[in-house]
Amino acid sequence: MNEAIKVMSERASVRNYEKGRQLPDETLQQILELAGKAPSAWNLQHWRFIVIKTEEQKEKIFPIAYNQQQVLDASAVILVIGDAEADKSAAEVFAGVPAEARDTLLSNIYGAYKRGRDFGEREALKNASLGAMQLMLAAKALGVDSCPMSGFDHERITGVLDIPDRFIPVMMITLGYAAAPIEQHGRFAIETLVMKEKFEEK
After folding, report:
1. What is residue 185's predicted lDDT score, i.e. its pLDDT?
2. Phi/psi at 148 (nearest 5 deg)?
C-alpha cells in the first residue's frame, strides 16, 4: 500500500495514551515543520502552534479542557490558533514577488480583510484547520498518535496562555502513543457523502 494512503487509512483519534512516555524533541520538530507546509489562502499561513509539554502547564489547561484525561496523559498538547489579521503578514509573504504582481496580490488581500473581523476569523478558522489536519497526518507518519479536541473553553485558554486578540483558538490536539490497540470508528458509506453535479437528498 502507498505510504500516504496507509497513514490516512490508519490515523484515528486516540484518547488513551501511554502516560509518561516522552515524545522526542526531534520528532515533534519534524511534525511541526511538516504541518507548516499545509496549504492556505494566499499562502498567509494563518496557523500558529502553541506546544505544551510540562506537567505544570498541562495541569493548568486540564480544567479548561473540561477535565479530559488525555490532556494529562498525552506526551504533548498542541493548541492550534488562527491569525484573524493575517493580512498584516502579507507584505512579508510576498516580499520576493515582482512588484507588479505583488501590488495586485496585496491590494486583493487588503481589500478582502477590510470586510471586517468576521471575515478574518472565518479565514483563520478554515486555514488553521488545514494546518491542524496536516499536523495529525504528519504525526501518524512518524508513529505518533493524536486526537483533535474542540471541547475546551476558548475564552479561558486565551487568558491562561496569553494569546493576543489577533489570534483565535481553533483546535487542541493531543499527541502521544496509544496505550491500547486503536479502534477504527464506523464511517458513512462514501455513497452517502458524495453527490454528483448538485446537492441530492440521501
Report:
1. 85
2. -80, 140
Domains within the chain, CATH numbers bracketed: 3-193 (3.40.109.10)
Q: Could you give the angle at the alpha carbon of 183 between the alpha carbons of 181 and 184, nearest 5°? A: 145
Find cell 507548516 and name the residue: 36
User: pLDDT tens digit string along 119-173?
Assistant: 999 999 999 999 999 999 999 999 999 999 999 999 999 999 999 999 999 999 9
Beta strand pairing status for 47-52 and 167-176?
unpaired
**Using CA atoms, how far apart are residues 164 and 54, in angstroms rounded to an integer?**
22
With CA atoms as reference, report the closest residue to 82 among 47, 45, 126: 47
What CA–CA distance (Å, rounded) separates 127 from 193?
22
Q: Are the C-beta atoms of residues 77 and 169 closer than 8 Å to each other?
A: no
- How sure is the predictor about 184, in pLDDT bands with cuts at 50, 70 and 90? confident
54: confidence class by pLDDT, cuts 50, 70, 90: very high
Classify 42 as helix, strand or coil: helix
Helices 117-141 and 3-10, axial angle in degrees (round to 10) = 110
Which residue type occupies 96?
A: G
User: Residues 192, 196, 199, CA angle at the centre, nearest 5°?
Assistant: 75
Radius of gyration in angstroms for the set of CA atoms belonging to the chain, rounded to a whole number? 19
Number of H helices, E strands in the chain: 9, 4
